[in-house]
Protein backbone atom coordinates (compact mmCIF):
# COMPACT_ATOMS: atom_id res chain seq x y z
CA UNK A 1 0.00 0.00 0.00
CA UNK A 2 1.21 3.52 -0.87
CA UNK A 3 1.95 5.46 2.31
CA UNK A 4 1.20 8.89 0.85
CA UNK A 5 -2.43 8.78 -0.21
CA UNK A 6 -5.19 11.37 -0.50
CA UNK A 7 -8.65 10.74 0.90
CA UNK A 8 -11.35 12.34 -1.26
CA UNK A 9 -14.48 12.47 0.90
CA UNK A 10 -17.43 14.35 -0.61
CA UNK A 11 -21.20 14.14 -0.58
CA UNK A 12 -23.75 15.79 -2.84
CA UNK A 13 -21.98 15.38 -6.19
CA UNK A 14 -19.97 12.96 -8.29
CA UNK A 15 -16.30 13.09 -7.25
CA UNK A 16 -14.97 11.43 -10.42
CA UNK A 17 -13.36 14.51 -12.00
CA UNK A 18 -11.72 15.51 -8.69
CA UNK A 19 -10.40 11.99 -8.27
CA UNK A 20 -9.09 11.89 -11.82
CA UNK A 21 -7.11 15.12 -11.48
CA UNK A 22 -5.78 14.44 -7.97
CA UNK A 23 -4.65 10.98 -9.10
CA UNK A 24 -2.22 12.56 -11.57
CA UNK A 25 0.04 13.28 -8.60
CA UNK A 26 -0.62 10.53 -6.03
CA UNK A 27 -2.97 7.73 -5.13
CA UNK A 28 -6.53 8.78 -4.27
CA UNK A 29 -9.10 6.77 -2.30
CA UNK A 30 -12.75 7.45 -1.53
CA UNK A 31 -12.72 5.50 1.74
CA UNK A 32 -9.99 4.83 4.32
CA UNK A 33 -8.78 1.27 4.75
CA UNK A 34 -10.41 0.30 8.01
CA UNK A 35 -10.82 2.36 11.16
CA UNK A 36 -7.17 3.41 11.47
CA UNK A 37 -5.61 4.06 8.07
CA UNK A 38 -1.99 5.27 8.41
CA UNK A 39 -1.50 5.74 4.66
CA UNK A 40 -3.60 8.91 4.30
CA UNK A 41 -1.53 12.12 4.40
CA UNK A 42 -4.07 14.61 3.02
CA UNK A 43 -7.87 14.87 2.83
CA UNK A 44 -9.84 16.78 0.20
CA UNK A 45 -13.41 17.15 1.43
CA UNK A 46 -16.86 18.62 0.98
CA UNK A 47 -19.44 17.70 3.62
CA UNK A 48 -17.33 14.68 4.49
CA UNK A 49 -18.81 11.63 6.17
CA UNK A 50 -19.02 11.97 9.97
CA UNK A 51 -15.95 10.88 11.92
CA UNK A 52 -14.00 9.83 8.80
CA UNK A 53 -11.11 12.25 9.43
CA UNK A 54 -10.61 11.09 13.01
CA UNK A 55 -9.58 7.67 11.67
CA UNK A 56 -6.44 8.99 9.95
CA UNK A 57 -3.51 9.04 12.42
CA UNK A 58 -0.97 10.45 9.91
CA UNK A 59 -3.18 13.15 8.39
CA UNK A 60 -1.16 16.31 7.70
CA UNK A 61 -3.80 18.70 6.31
CA UNK A 62 -7.44 19.01 5.22
CA UNK A 63 -8.41 20.86 2.02
CA UNK A 64 -11.92 22.22 1.47
CA UNK A 65 -13.31 21.89 -2.05
CA UNK A 66 -15.52 24.95 -1.55
CA UNK A 67 -14.92 28.43 -0.19
CA UNK A 68 -16.80 27.62 3.00
CA UNK A 69 -15.36 25.47 5.80
CA UNK A 70 -18.34 25.24 8.17
CA UNK A 71 -19.03 21.75 6.86
CA UNK A 72 -15.59 20.70 8.11
CA UNK A 73 -15.75 22.45 11.46
CA UNK A 74 -19.17 20.92 12.19
CA UNK A 75 -17.39 17.57 12.74
CA UNK A 76 -16.86 17.36 16.51
CA UNK A 77 -14.26 14.60 16.06
CA UNK A 78 -12.11 16.74 13.76
CA UNK A 79 -8.39 16.03 14.29
CA UNK A 80 -6.04 18.86 15.21
CA UNK A 81 -4.45 19.38 11.79
CA UNK A 82 -4.36 22.46 9.50
CA UNK A 83 -7.42 23.24 7.37
CA UNK A 84 -6.79 24.98 4.05
CA UNK A 85 -9.37 27.31 2.47
CA UNK A 86 -9.87 27.54 -1.28
CA UNK A 87 -8.67 30.87 -2.68
CA UNK A 88 -8.48 30.71 -6.44
CA UNK A 89 -8.61 33.48 -9.07
CA UNK A 90 -11.20 31.56 -11.11
CA UNK A 91 -13.52 31.11 -8.12
CA UNK A 92 -13.09 34.76 -7.17
CA UNK A 93 -13.81 35.91 -10.73
CA UNK A 94 -17.03 33.90 -10.85
CA UNK A 95 -18.24 35.45 -7.60
CA UNK A 96 -17.33 38.96 -8.74
CA UNK A 97 -19.24 38.39 -11.98
CA UNK A 98 -22.30 37.22 -10.04
CA UNK A 99 -22.25 40.18 -7.65
CA UNK A 100 -21.77 42.76 -10.41
CA UNK A 101 -24.49 41.09 -12.50
CA UNK A 102 -27.04 41.14 -9.70
CA UNK A 103 -26.16 44.65 -8.49
CA UNK A 104 -26.44 46.00 -12.04
CA UNK A 105 -29.71 44.16 -12.70
CA UNK A 106 -31.32 45.66 -9.59
CA UNK A 107 -29.78 49.07 -10.28
CA UNK A 108 -30.98 49.11 -13.92
CA UNK A 109 -34.47 47.90 -12.93
CA UNK A 110 -34.29 44.49 -14.53
CA UNK A 111 -37.26 43.11 -12.60
CA UNK A 112 -39.51 46.03 -13.60
CA UNK A 113 -38.51 45.78 -17.27
CA UNK A 114 -39.07 42.01 -17.33
CA UNK A 115 -42.55 42.59 -15.91
CA UNK A 116 -43.19 45.20 -18.59
CA UNK A 117 -42.04 42.80 -21.30
CA UNK A 118 -44.45 40.14 -20.08
CA UNK A 119 -47.30 42.68 -20.46
CA UNK A 120 -45.93 44.11 -23.76
CA UNK A 121 -45.55 47.54 -22.16
CA UNK A 122 -43.20 50.09 -23.76
CA UNK A 123 -42.29 52.51 -20.97
CA UNK A 124 -38.88 54.00 -20.27
CA UNK A 125 -38.28 54.32 -16.55
CA UNK A 126 -36.24 57.05 -14.86
CA UNK A 127 -32.72 55.82 -14.11
CA UNK A 128 -30.35 57.02 -11.39
CA UNK A 129 -26.57 56.83 -11.78
CA UNK A 130 -24.34 54.40 -9.92
CA UNK A 131 -22.94 57.31 -7.89
CA UNK A 132 -26.38 57.65 -6.27
CA UNK A 133 -26.35 54.07 -4.95
CA UNK A 134 -24.51 52.59 -1.96
CA UNK A 135 -23.70 48.88 -2.02
CA UNK A 136 -22.91 47.32 1.35
CA UNK A 137 -20.88 44.11 1.44
CA UNK A 138 -21.06 41.98 4.58
CA UNK A 139 -17.85 39.97 4.56
CA UNK A 140 -14.79 41.79 3.21
CA UNK A 141 -12.50 38.82 2.70
CA UNK A 142 -10.91 37.77 -0.59
CA UNK A 143 -14.26 37.52 -2.41
CA UNK A 144 -15.80 40.61 -0.86
CA UNK A 145 -12.74 42.76 -1.49
CA UNK A 146 -12.61 41.72 -5.15
CA UNK A 147 -16.31 42.48 -5.58
CA UNK A 148 -15.86 45.86 -3.90
CA UNK A 149 -13.07 46.77 -6.31
CA UNK A 150 -15.23 45.92 -9.33
CA UNK A 151 -18.21 47.88 -7.99
CA UNK A 152 -16.19 50.99 -7.15
CA UNK A 153 -14.79 50.94 -10.69
CA UNK A 154 -18.39 51.22 -11.93
CA UNK A 155 -19.00 54.26 -9.75
CA UNK A 156 -20.97 52.76 -6.86
CA UNK A 157 -20.31 53.86 -3.30
CA UNK A 158 -19.24 50.73 -1.44
CA UNK A 159 -19.55 50.10 2.29
CA UNK A 160 -17.99 47.06 3.93
CA UNK A 161 -18.74 45.34 7.23
CA UNK A 162 -16.71 42.65 8.94
CA UNK A 163 -16.60 41.18 12.44
CA UNK A 164 -13.08 42.51 12.98
CA UNK A 165 -11.51 45.64 11.54
CA UNK A 166 -10.45 45.46 7.89
CA UNK A 167 -9.30 48.23 5.59
CA UNK A 168 -9.96 47.95 1.85
CA UNK A 169 -9.06 50.69 -0.61
CA UNK A 170 -12.08 52.64 -1.78
CA UNK A 171 -14.43 51.04 0.78
CA UNK A 172 -16.14 52.77 3.71
CA UNK A 173 -15.23 50.24 6.40
CA UNK A 174 -17.36 49.32 9.41
CA UNK A 175 -16.75 46.50 11.84
CA UNK A 176 -18.06 44.77 14.92
CA UNK A 177 -21.40 45.10 16.66
CA UNK A 178 -21.03 48.86 17.03
CA UNK A 179 -20.51 49.31 13.30
CA UNK A 180 -23.34 47.10 12.04
CA UNK A 181 -26.31 49.48 12.35
CA UNK A 182 -24.44 52.49 10.86
CA UNK A 183 -23.33 50.22 8.01
CA UNK A 184 -26.89 49.08 7.30
CA UNK A 185 -28.34 52.59 7.61
CA UNK A 186 -26.04 53.79 4.82
CA UNK A 187 -26.66 50.81 2.48
CA UNK A 188 -29.15 50.53 -0.40
CA UNK A 189 -28.10 47.14 -1.80
CA UNK A 190 -26.91 44.61 0.77
CA UNK A 191 -24.53 41.90 -0.49
CA UNK A 192 -23.99 39.01 1.92
CA UNK A 193 -20.70 37.09 1.61
CA UNK A 194 -20.05 36.23 5.25
CA UNK A 195 -18.63 32.90 6.35
CA UNK A 196 -20.98 30.71 8.40
CA UNK A 197 -19.95 30.60 12.05
CA UNK A 198 -21.78 30.33 15.36
CA UNK A 199 -21.79 34.14 15.47
CA UNK A 200 -23.16 34.67 11.94
CA UNK A 201 -25.75 31.88 11.78
CA UNK A 202 -29.16 33.48 11.13
CA UNK A 203 -27.73 37.00 11.14
CA UNK A 204 -29.78 38.08 8.11
CA UNK A 205 -33.13 38.32 9.87
CA UNK A 206 -36.07 40.68 9.72
CA UNK A 207 -34.71 43.04 12.37
CA UNK A 208 -31.43 43.44 10.49
CA UNK A 209 -33.17 44.03 7.16
CA UNK A 210 -35.31 46.76 8.76
CA UNK A 211 -32.14 48.81 9.23
CA UNK A 212 -31.39 49.08 5.50
CA UNK A 213 -31.95 52.44 3.79
CA UNK A 214 -35.30 52.35 1.99
CA UNK A 215 -35.63 55.97 0.89
CA UNK A 216 -33.04 55.82 -1.87
CA UNK A 217 -32.45 56.06 -5.60
CA UNK A 218 -33.71 52.50 -6.10
CA UNK A 219 -37.09 53.03 -4.50
CA UNK A 220 -36.31 50.52 -1.77
CA UNK A 221 -33.70 48.27 -0.19
CA UNK A 222 -32.32 45.23 -2.02
CA UNK A 223 -30.76 42.00 -0.72
CA UNK A 224 -28.21 39.88 -2.62
CA UNK A 225 -27.22 36.71 -0.75
CA UNK A 226 -24.39 34.55 -2.11
CA UNK A 227 -22.53 33.40 1.00
CA UNK A 228 -24.01 30.54 3.01
CA UNK A 229 -27.72 29.72 3.16
CA UNK A 230 -27.89 29.37 6.93
CA UNK A 231 -26.75 32.97 7.35
CA UNK A 232 -30.33 34.06 6.75
CA UNK A 233 -33.85 33.14 7.72
CA UNK A 234 -35.87 32.52 4.58
CA UNK A 235 -39.18 33.34 6.30
CA UNK A 236 -37.83 36.71 7.46
CA UNK A 237 -36.74 37.59 3.92
CA UNK A 238 -40.24 36.79 2.64
CA UNK A 239 -41.77 38.90 5.38
CA UNK A 240 -39.49 41.81 4.48
CA UNK A 241 -40.46 41.52 0.82
CA UNK A 242 -44.16 41.38 1.63
CA UNK A 243 -44.24 44.51 3.82
CA UNK A 244 -41.85 46.62 1.72
CA UNK A 245 -38.83 46.40 4.02
CA UNK A 246 -37.15 44.92 0.95
CA UNK A 247 -37.97 45.97 -2.58
CA UNK A 248 -36.30 42.97 -4.27
CA UNK A 249 -33.85 40.15 -3.61
CA UNK A 250 -31.40 37.94 -5.48
CA UNK A 251 -30.84 34.68 -3.60
CA UNK A 252 -28.22 32.09 -4.52
CA UNK A 253 -28.24 30.27 -1.18
CA UNK A 254 -30.98 29.07 1.15
CA UNK A 255 -31.53 27.56 4.58
CA UNK A 256 -32.34 24.22 2.94
CA UNK A 257 -30.75 23.18 -0.35
CA UNK A 258 -31.95 22.27 -2.86
CA UNK A 259 -34.73 24.78 -2.20
CA UNK A 260 -37.86 22.66 -1.57
CA UNK A 261 -40.46 22.82 -4.33
CA UNK A 262 -43.00 23.77 -1.67
CA UNK A 263 -41.07 26.91 -0.69
CA UNK A 264 -43.02 30.13 -1.36
CA UNK A 265 -39.76 31.77 -2.40
CA UNK A 266 -40.06 30.09 -5.81
CA UNK A 267 -43.22 31.97 -6.69
CA UNK A 268 -42.35 35.35 -5.24
CA UNK A 269 -42.16 37.84 -8.14
CA UNK A 270 -39.69 40.03 -6.25
CA UNK A 271 -37.05 37.29 -5.96
CA UNK A 272 -34.42 36.21 -8.49
CA UNK A 273 -33.24 32.65 -7.73
CA UNK A 274 -30.05 30.82 -8.71
CA UNK A 275 -29.22 27.29 -7.44
CA UNK A 276 -26.07 27.97 -5.37
CA UNK A 277 -24.32 28.69 -8.67
CA UNK A 278 -22.67 32.06 -8.02
CA UNK A 279 -19.17 30.58 -7.81
CA UNK A 280 -18.94 26.85 -8.41
CA UNK A 281 -15.71 25.08 -7.45
CA UNK A 282 -14.05 23.85 -10.65
CA UNK A 283 -11.58 20.98 -10.17
CA UNK A 284 -9.70 21.99 -13.32
CA UNK A 285 -8.68 25.19 -11.51
CA UNK A 286 -8.55 24.08 -7.88
CA UNK A 287 -6.73 20.75 -7.94
CA UNK A 288 -3.40 22.18 -9.13
CA UNK A 289 -2.96 24.63 -6.22
CA UNK A 290 -4.03 21.90 -3.79
CA UNK A 291 -1.35 19.54 -5.09
CA UNK A 292 1.23 22.34 -5.03
CA UNK A 293 0.44 22.97 -1.36
CA UNK A 294 0.72 19.25 -0.59
CA UNK A 295 4.15 19.06 -2.25
CA UNK A 296 5.26 22.16 -0.34
CA UNK A 297 4.06 20.64 2.93
CA UNK A 298 5.99 17.45 2.15
CA UNK A 299 9.10 19.62 1.91
CA UNK A 300 8.39 21.23 5.28
CA UNK A 301 7.15 24.53 3.87
CA UNK A 302 4.22 26.31 5.55
CA UNK A 303 0.68 25.92 4.20
CA UNK A 304 -1.15 29.01 2.92
CA UNK A 305 -4.72 30.25 3.43
CA UNK A 306 -5.19 28.43 6.71
CA UNK A 307 -8.48 28.50 8.61
CA UNK A 308 -8.56 30.13 12.01
CA UNK A 309 -10.54 27.57 13.99
CA UNK A 310 -11.37 30.02 16.76
CA UNK A 311 -12.85 32.50 14.26
CA UNK A 312 -14.50 29.76 12.19
CA UNK A 313 -13.08 30.84 8.82
From TrEMBL:
Please give the InterPro entries that the UniProt record associates with this protein: D-isomer_DH_NAD-bd (IPR006140), NAD(P)-bd_dom_sf (IPR036291)
Q: Which Pfam families match?
A: 2-Hacid_dh_C
Looking at the record, the residues that make up the D-isomer specific 2-hydroxyacid dehydrogenase NAD-binding domain are: 102-278
**UniProt name for this protein:** Glyoxylate/hydroxypyruvate reductase A
Q: Which residues cross the membrane?
A: none
Q: Name one GO molecular function term.
A: NAD binding
Q: Provide this UniProt record's keywords sorted from A to Z.
A: NAD, Oxidoreductase, Pyruvate
Q: Does the keyword Secreted apply?
A: no
Amino acid sequence: MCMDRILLSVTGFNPHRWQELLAQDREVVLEPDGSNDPSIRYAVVWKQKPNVLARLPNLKAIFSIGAGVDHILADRTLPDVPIVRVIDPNLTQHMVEYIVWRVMDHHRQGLAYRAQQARKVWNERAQRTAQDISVGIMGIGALGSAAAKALTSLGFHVNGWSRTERKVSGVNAYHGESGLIPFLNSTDILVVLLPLTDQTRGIINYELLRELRRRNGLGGAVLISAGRGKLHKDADILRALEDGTLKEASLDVFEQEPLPKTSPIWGNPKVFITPHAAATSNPAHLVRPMLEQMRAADEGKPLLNLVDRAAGY
